[in-house]
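Priority: medium. Attachment 1 of 2:
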């Protein structure tokens, strides 16, 4: 197996610049994840990165069998 990670930034903010709960991924789009799938990468896990009680990033873990 070979592995790859993709870090996504959560950046939905309110008018004061605070991150809103239920934010959506800003730096990763569906087309990017779709391309990884077409290259044989399988999403096997997602976890959040929390800083001072706020989730600002998520890490997506992918794997595929070595050729």
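Attachment 2 of 2:
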């Amino acid at each position: 197996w070979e592995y790859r990670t993709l870090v996504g930034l959560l950046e939905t903010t309110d008018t004061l610049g605070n991150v809103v709960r239920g934010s959506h991924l800003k730096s990763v789009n569906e087309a990017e994840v779709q391309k990884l799938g077409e290259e044989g990468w399988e999403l096997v896990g997602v976890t959040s990165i929390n800083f001072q009680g706020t989730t600002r990033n998520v890490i997506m873990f992918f794997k595929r069998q070595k050729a």
